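Please go through the sequence line and token line underneath and see whether the fold suits the sequence. See right below:
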Amino acid sequence: MKRLIHGVVDRLDHRFINDLPPFDIINPSAENLAKYFYDEITGRLPTAVRLGQVKIWETDITSATFRP
């Protein structure tokens, strides 16, 4: 799971997210980032494994959670 997460993070890290699909079309809000991480990770999991949710933290007290 860490490898999958790092793969998604590495694609976005130190880049201007607004230039990268799908964020060149949609707002890179925490809500949209949570869905993006969910979709990217779910697409790489074995079919027998299901991801329940993704939570993205903006600050120490603010987060966004995506649940399918």
